[in-house]
Hints:
By secondary structure, the chain is α/β, with parallel strands linked by helices. The protein has nine helices and 15 strands. It is globular, with a radius of gyration of 19 Å.
Amino acid sequence: MADTRPKLSTIDPVWSRICDEAVAAIGTEPLLGGLVHSSILHHPSLERALAYRFSLKLASGEMSEQILREIADEAHASDPSLGHAARADVTAVFERDPACHRYLQPILFFKGFQAVQAYRIGHWLWQQGRFDMAYFVQMRVSEVFGVDIHPAARIGRGIMIDHAHSIVIGETAVVGDNVSMLHSVTLGGTGKEDGDRHPKIGNGVLIGAGAKVLGNIHIGHCTRIAAGSVVLQDVPPCKTVAGVPARVVGEAGCATPSLTMDQVV
Length: 265
């Protein structure tokens, strides 16, 4: 007898939840029906929906939606990790941002989530050696979302960027998994030096609003960086740093600061 059970590849609880929330949203606000249908319900998968949003938001007189859609579809088809990262990212936003009440919200409304997904396409282009197209994506993400992430930067999964205005992440920066940061964070260099010149952020780090982490330094896992701090030296794991320049002021206060989002020092 034929096996009628659904294949594992067809089971996608994140996408199913997003679609259910999309239907409910139309029932609550029918005037958003066109937006919700075109962005969510017309697509068979999260990957296809993300490709559509990528092309819609980044298109301009210089680059058509069709070309950008083809690029994004190609990226997702060739690298399934992009979709896996997106699911981790949208879950991270839902779980950590108190303003997020549905999985649907980041895809439609939150520029931090959308900017990170667009960066991931740019990073894929960079890895393919398509540097100029990657730079174009970086430029448009900066223009549209106010988020400037170099396509060569390496960023893990489960990333939550709250508000996301004026985020800057440099070329040789590395951001681990399950990192949370707020607006106006800079992961930058300290001058005109070339080569490996940007911060390495460990897993589970919380970076407060306006914090600047500068130079080829290492921030240990599960560290808290207080808002407005300027970090110029390595930070051990599981510490809280604050000040200008930043110094260790105590323990992190919990095992996973990026998840609890407790920013009180």
